[in-house]
Amino acid sequence: MLQAFPLQANPVEVLNAFEVQLNAHNVKAALALFTDDAVVYDPTAISCYGGTGYSCEPSLFISYTSKTQIRGWLQYLAEVDIEVKEVGAPQTTGNNVTWTWQVSNNGYRSLNIAPLVGAGEAIVQGNLIKYLNFRLSTDSIEKLEAALAASSRSPFSVARESIGFGLFVLGLVFPAAAAYYISRVRTLFAAVPKLKRPWVLLQAGVVCLFTAILVVGIRSSIGTSIPFLDIIQYVAVVLTGFFILVAMVLMKRVWLAAPDV
Question: Which of 8, 82, 123, 234 is the most buried (most CB within 10 A)?
Fold first, then answer.
């Protein structure tokens, strides 16, 4: 049931009512405590870290300027089991209210850092919230970032990175071994005529293969996709297959033309 307030309610009472409805995950009742033109700021994007597997760009979730957006924000906070609690007494200046609060949600709990501490600021117009600002403290942000970084370094991720590095090194060794093998075989077949072009094509294929593998390593170290590097990798892979295939065809023709070699 929605709480009834006088036309000009005590701002702290309105914020207390909002806290009750938020903790109860009553989205409808919490939304009813906002004016139609209310603005909510979430500078630390606490909703982005609320649960597992939820991906969002913080820049898209900093402010909510419509009832529809605020409803979505409240709905997600309810889904991740948000829990807020005031710490100390709120400070009021007219219709402005500032307070310190603790916040927990499934994401913070899974990282073993709940609750985090932050600050709240609100402007109450009549008996409704016109402006609401949630933000984590600097210490809490650092604590959250450290926990997120540690969680990304799980044993599985470390093992995956090690395997990826091993494959990258192996990928660099393979072209080097292939180049050495080609040079040795080329020496053995130096007396065979018309093999000069196939050897050059094979070497070109090895160079392209080395280039493709090197680009893979560069992209992995950067961690982001760069269109220019993507194009180089695709071209290098295609040229590798082309040069090696053409070289094999030419070598077969030379071999068939000189069966006594």
Answer: 82
Domain of 172, in residue numbers: 155-257
Q: Output the DSSP codes for 121-172.
A: EEEEETTEEEEEEEEE-HHHHHHHHHHHHHHHT-HHHHHHHHHHHHHHHHHH
Phi, psi dihedral angles at 29 (to 5 degrees):
-70, -40
Give the domain CATH number at 22: 3.10.450.50
User: Which residue among 135, 152, 169 closes a domain?
Assistant: 152
C-beta separation of 105 from 80 below 8 A? yes
In a domain, 143, yes or no: yes
The model carries a pTM of 0.55
pLDDT in tens, 175-215: 777 777 777 766 766 666 666 777 788 888 888 888 877 77
Q: 166-186 burial by CB neighbour count: b if 16+ within 10 A, else e?
A: eebeebeeebeebbeebeeeb
Distance of alpha carbon 34 from its chain centroid, rounded?
32
Report yes or no: 175 and 144 within 8 Å, Cβ to Cβ. no
Q: Which two tokens mark 256?
A: 């068939």
